[in-house]
Structure formats: structure tokens, C-alpha cells
Amino acid sequence: MSVSTKNASQMQTSLYLIEDDLSVRDFVLHTLQARPDWSLVGHSDSLAHASAHAADAAANVYLVDLGLPDGRGEDLLKSLAKTNPGAELLVFTVFGDESRLIGALEAGATGYVLKGCTSEDLIGAIEQIQEGGAPISPLLARMLLKRFRGPDDVAPVQAAADAVVKQTLLSEREIDVLRLVAQGYVNKEIARKLDISMHTVGSHIKNLYRKLAVHTRVQVVRVAQERGLV
Amino acid sequence: MGGVLRALARVPAWTWVSALLGLILIALDLVSRPVSVPGATALTSATAVLRRVGAGTDDPGESRAVRLPHIWDDESPPWEGDAQYHLGWPQGLEPTSQRIGLYLPRVGARFRVLLNDEVFVEQNWHTVDYVDTSVVPWFFEVPEKLLLPNPKDNRLVVEVRGQLLRKSGLSAPVLGPYELVQQRYERVYWWQVYATWMVAACSLMLGVLTGLLWLHGRERVFGLLAAACFSWSVRLGLTPLVDPRMPFELWFYLHKLSFTAYCGFLYLFLWDLFDVRARWARHLVVALLCIGPFWLAATTWVANYNLYRIWTGTIAAVSVVTLTMMFMRARWGLDNNQRLMVVVGLVTLITGVRDFGVVQLGWPGDGDLRWMTPGSLVFMLTLAWVMVQRATSYVQKVGELNRDLELKVREKESELRLAFEQIREAERTQVLESERRRLTRDMHDGLGSQLVQTLNMVRSGADVDARQVESMINHALEELRMTLDSLEPMEGDLPAILGTLRRRIAPALEAARIELEWEVEEVPAITDRGARLESRGVMHLFRCLQEVFANIIKHARASRVTVRTWTQEGRPMLSVTDNGVGLGPGYREGGRGLSNIRLRATEIGAHVRFGDAAPGTTVEFAFSATATTGMDMSSP
What we know:
The complex is a heterodimer. By secondary structure, chain A is of the alpha/beta class. Chain A contains 11 helices and 7 strands. In chain A, helix 1 (22-32) crosses helix 5 (119-130) and helix 8 packs across helix 11. The N and C termini of chain A lie far apart (44 Å). In chain B, 55% of the residues lie in helices and 17% in strands. Chain B is an alpha+beta fold. In chain B, a hairpin with a 2-residue loop joins strand 17 and strand 18 (571-578). The A-B interface holds A 95-99, 116, 137-139, 142, 145-146, 148-150, 153-154, 169-170, 172, 175, 179, 181-186, 189 and B 474, 477, 480-481, 484-485, 487-490, 493, 495-496, 498-500, 502-503, 518, 520-522, 631-636.
């Protein structure tokens, strides 16, 4: 994982934590001591509280726990993606199980961090996402490839939706990156194999997440159109 | 119109068939009653001069006054040879004032007519082969130029050449006004010839139809009716033939035999149709059918008409018995079909008895008009109607049975489906149970033991190394994550499985300063017993490789390890190669670690080979695969 402070130092980083586990909150606060230039602008311990206050806090980075006591973190991700489109939405999860992660990414998450990581790991993850990179796993890459594939995506596209759909189609490079990730290669190896920088690898992955969310929305609209609901 | 039709449809068939049959009987009676044509005279007496066979030309012959109709077979001994009937010219028939017609209702087997010693009609007189002119009526105009001015002086002679067994002779000729006599002749001709042909054709058609039905279904009742119909059409076809172009004996035999067969098959058919189990009566009819050919052959051989009379009498008796039994069975008040059959059978009986009486016993009536002929048409059509109804009811019954069957099949189907669902449910439960057991075991062996170790260490003394505890808990968490990873849908995709494992072992390799070289490429999906590797198999593979890497870290003293995948003869292959010390004492074939690896590999149907990489060791796995690749990585 590359840790660069070039960009991070230039911007004011404000965090917002949505998490019901107090030990995790303490861990985050402890971590922030290492980065005095970062600030925790808010904390919610329930979905209801977060829904009411998180968006207004206008943080750069939101750390979202998926298993909140009063609801699904995915719903919060969805609304935050709409109200705060510029913010990074990091999923805070214990196991990083890909089946659930992909749902969060579809809802608008731009990355994820494993609970139980070290303070350095957390700082690294936040820096990575702010630099335009994103974490990924082979299984996640595999699922993304599957998700973006299939006849539906290359099927005749309606003129109105054309521009949107084009945004959601993967580039050759993005596919190459995904395939290599799925085969277990790490970013450094991918960069070497494709003769690109590690930063580009990271931005490709982040771009993929953004496309996944759009793709999912387009899919929903298309299904609705097919069923005559729109 | 529709109302009338509906009203007609409501009337039971037997009532209107009765009415129709009544009309036919009345018509038959009217046409065959010896009526006098106005202005014409039936010549009922004659002087017959017989010249027997073999008599010389100078033989004057026997002369006798006879009443007409005169039948040679009724004489004792029967007449054979030529005979001249001298007929007196009727009084009051003025030859000059009008054309005169001569109608001969029955004359034969050959004849010629002379007026005042001049032959003016000659019918088959010189034909060599067998002919019989008596089967059709004849009509001629009396030539005016041969007539004498004084009516009383005219001498009309009908010369006849007979044929034994053919009731040869002469019936009363009718002389009178041409048109009126011709009308009478034509009416009789229609009934005697055309009606016979028509009925023969109908009977043949019915025979063909029922014959086809019999061929199709092999149901005896159709076969019997077909046989009866064919026999009857043969009989009727032979009847009005003046010149049948065959020997007399053959014609006579076929003509009589076909009638016998008709009656026999018809009775058998009736019993079958109504399912009457009159065994002795059935035997009687079968006996009739068996004896008939021989009796008739004997009759032809001895040329005695009385033998044939006995035979027809027997047939008539059997028919009376048969039909009476039918009436007894089918009591009034039963179903309409039975009433119909009773009515039609009764009429057939009447026509049969009438024909027998008139033709064989000399009852009054025109013996050349057989009532049975038109009667039989109605009879057979009625039989056909009953058959159609029967077939229809069969079809309905089959339909009902099919519906029942369908219902039953559907019931069984739903039962089966239920059973299948239960089995599937049981299987699912079993799969869940085995999965639960596997997870429990994994938790127990991996996570559980890690936590117990940690707990024991924390409990054991005051000098607890926080870093060690952290590492142990981390280890436990990794164990848990690996178990969860194995539950992700990987569909036997080896690179994805390896990539997932890589994230777990990379820190340990890094800590041991072992460089990891990744040379993984796409390979076909791993299968285990035909299905893509499931979480249980993935976990086995994880543990297997964990063991391999643990061995490398602990014993190999390697600085680099290479993970490589490739395809060999359609099978996914994997090798883990280190550059360490090679197969040492702790890494020997048969050692605990190695046998564990083997055991787990066998669990997922893979072969393991340990080899010397010089320097170092290579562990090679050969998996089984189906033809398709694990994941189609073609561009979206």
C-alpha cells in the first residue's frame, strides 16, 4: 500500500464516524492522535442519528459500519452518495466478506477498511482513498467482472440512456486490472505487468467502484423500463 | 326450421323408423299385388305342349291345359326340354285401333314369342352357355303387320326352354294398350332390378366400411357385420343377371350359399351386438353356416328343388327362432336402440316369411318381387346406425376413462412431487448439516484452539507479552476470515482461491523474509466429483496450501517461493516451489505434514507430487476439471 502525504497534507481532512462499537471509536480517536491535521467532525452510533446529522457535517471521509443496531449501513451509504457526492465513503467491516461488500459498493461506497487493522493501516486506507486509489480483493475483482459482463450491457442501448450507459462500460485497461486482481496479483505486480504506475492502478479500481454504483442504478432503471414502470 | 329439426331429434329413432318401414311395406304390397291393368288382359290359362329332352323332331309332345303361372320344377317329374304355350287372344282387344304391348312378368330360362307362326321375339334361344331370362321382366310391342284383322284368328305362342331348379315356366302374360302395359312393366322392373342393384351397392359400401373397422380394431362384431354385408351384396349382385357368364351349377351354388352366409353372419352379429349369451342358438347358426355349403352342393348335384325348399325353410325357422329370442331379450320399455332393433327385426322377419311363402309355397303375390331386398337395406342401415351409436358411446367412455386416468396421473404426479420435495428437503438438510459440522470442526480446530492457547497464555502468568497476545488474536481472526472466505462463491476458480489465500499468508512470508513470486494464470475450473469445488473443498485446499507454506517457512530456509498455475491436458495445475534446502528430514515423504496434505488433496480429487527443485522443493497439484473454464474472462 503506498502511503503518500503529498496530497493529504494539502487538504484539510475531516472524518465522520458511524459506528455503535465504542472500542472502535476509541481506536479511531487513538489513530487520529498520530495525524493532528485530521479531525473527527462527528460521530453517530445509530442509523437514525446518522441520517439526521451525518450529511450536514460535510466531512471529507465517512467511516460507515454496515451492521448498525437500527438498520442497514447500505441505506445510509445510498443517501450520503446523493447528498455528499464529493465525500469518500469508507465501509468499516470486520471480515471484508465480498458478497456484502459488493452490495455496499453498489450503494455508493468508495472503499473499505477491515476492523482490527492497525492505526497505520487505517491511516494508509484513508490516504489511499483520498489520493484516488481504492482497496480491492481477488474475489471482489472476480465479482465485479461478472457484474459488468453479460449480454445486458452490450444490448441495444436507448438513445436517452446512451451517455449514462457509456459511463458504466469498462475500458480495456480497467478489465485488464480487474482480471489481474482476480488472479491474485497485487497492485505493484499489476503496475509492472501493465507498465503503468501504482497510482493509476489504484485510480482504475476507484473508478470501477464509481461505475459499479452508476451501473447498478442504470440496471435498475432499465429493469424498470422493461417492466413498464417508468 | 331449426325448431322442427330439434323436435325431430327428440323423437326416438324407433318411432320414425317404424313409420318408414310401414310405408315401405305398403309400397311393396301395392307394387307386388296382382293388379289388372285397365284395358289389358292377363292370360291365366294356356295349352302347353312339352317336348322332353332327347325327343325326336317328329315327336308331337305332350299336350295339356295349364294354369299360369306354370312352374316346371313343380311338375312331377319336373319338366325338362322345350314347351309351347298356346295362348288365346283376349276378347275385345282390337288390334287395328291401337299399339299393343306384351308384358311377360316371368318367363325362362329362354324363350321366343310367335304370332301367327311368325317369330317376333327371340331371347337367348340359341345361347350355348347358362342363361336365365326369368330373373327380369320383359316387355315387347306386338308387331301390327303380323296381326290378323279378326282378333279371334290370332294365335299367340310363347315357346320356353327350361332350366332345372330355376323355377322355369311362364307366368301370366299381359296383353293390352302399349303405354299402360309398359307403365306396369317399368314399375316392376324398377323394384326387381334397379332396387336390387342399389341395395347391393349400399350393402357393399357398408361391408367395406365395417371391414375397415374390423381390420383396424379386430373387434369381432365388425367382422361379422362385414361378412354379412359382403355375402348379401354377392347374393343381390348375382340375382338380376340374365347372362352371368358362368356354369349354371356355379351360379346356383354361389347364389344360394351367399344367402345362407348372409343370414348366418347376421344372426351371429346380432347376438354379439346385444351381447346375448344364447349358446345353443349360436351353435345352431354355426351349424347352419357349416352344413350350408355341403347341403347346397348336394342340392346342385341332384338338381332337386325340394332340397332347396327344405334348406330355405330351415333358414326361415332359424331366423324366426333367433329374432324371437331377440324380442324376448329386448323387452319393451328398455332402451331406444333395442326398440329400434325389435321393430326393424320384425319387419325383416315379415319380409322373409312373405318371400318364403310366396316364392316357395305359392302364396298369392308376385313371387319375382322379393320384399327382403328393400327390407334388408333398412335393416342394415339400422344396424349401421346402432353400430355408430355404440362406437360413439365407446369414444365417450374412452374419453371419460382418459379423464379419470389423467386425474389419477395428476394425483400421482403431485404425490411424486411432494415426495421429491421431501427428499430434496432432506438432502438440503443433510447438506446444511454436513456444512454445519464442517464449520464447527473448523472453528474448533482453528479459531477455538487459537483462542484457548491465547487464554491459557494470558492466564498462565503475570508476565504476559502484549505483542504475543496481539499476534495470537490476530492469528485467530485470520483463521476466522479464512473460514469466511471459503464460504464465498468461488466456483472452483483456482486463481481467485490462490489470490484470497495470498492475502492471508503474505504477512507471514514477509515476516520470514521470503519473497513471493506470483505466476498465476487462468485455468479451467476445479471440479470435485463432477461439480465445481464448493466451500468444503475450498477449505481443504486452503488448509493444504497453508500446510505447504508453513513447511516452507519452518523448514525450507528459502528466500523465494514461486506459485504457478497452468493447464495440462485440460486439467488445472498448481505448483509451489521454493529455493530452500530441499526435502529434508522434517519434510520427508510420509511425514505428518506431507500425509496431511495428501489426505486433504485426495478429499477434493487432486493428485499431489513432491519433487526436488534443485535447489529446493516443489509441490505439484493436479486437479480434475470439466471442459469449461472457471470463469470466462473475456471482455465485457
